[in-house]
Here is the input.
Amino acid sequence: MNADRPHFDRDLDLGDAELVRRIAESYRAPEPSAAERVALRARIDARLQRRSVRRLWVAGAATAGVAAAIALLRAGEPAVAPAPDAAADEALLALAAPAGAEEEALPDDYQAIEDLLLEGEGV
Amino acid sequence: MQSDPDLERRFDAFVNGYRDRAVGMAWRLLGGDGAAAEDVVQEAFARAYRGLARFRDDAKLSTWFYRILVNEVRRYQRWKIVRRSRTADREPDAIEDPRASAPRPDPALRRRIGEAIAALPRGQREAFVLVHLEGLTLVEAASATGRAVGTMKSHLHRALASLRSRLADLATEETR
Here is the structure.
């Protein structure tokens, strides 16, 4: 028995071959008309269309669900102030203030007091 | 549906090439239920549509599609069993095809054969229909059903023995 051979029934004895032939002849689907073929194709296309719409809807719903979940998670988080970090503060100040401008950065009152003190020392 | 013109062309040719064969095969596997066969074939083509874009080996296209079709037939049969168990609706297998407006050669004989085939266990029924009635090779039928070639041979042997005993008169009528 060759498994790749299409006409398997050649291996049958006469009685079985006849039985198979009669069954194959009598037990078969009716030949579809041209209209039935067209209708079948239209139903396949309609099924594909429905599937495509459903896929889009599912993808949209999934995206919206993920976005809503992220928004809910973020809304539930407590507003935590960043921990103070002296080195980082100094670095930021150094960047913000021009070099040698510390005096100008002093408030007016403190500037006046400083002037009096300096004058008293004869500077 | 996607608007890939190449895929659309391939799918069109694919449906035209396999439609009648697929309906015939499903019809036989489903005991002659025409409405069920058409439903199964529609679903098989719809499932094949997406895979077709990735499938480039035309030589294996038929085996691939028959596997989808056989799986759809099995899915339908499982669904039918569940539906029957829930509704206790023991409807007989629809041997008469609602589309069959053309005269049939012998409806009684067809019904008898349909009942004999439907009474076979699933593995035997699939093996007999695919190899003896649809002309697939053992290798193709084994691939379509996901079974070993040896198992297919065993199923064929048993199916034939069972049908021989139920339909003995058909085997001897014209060989006497």
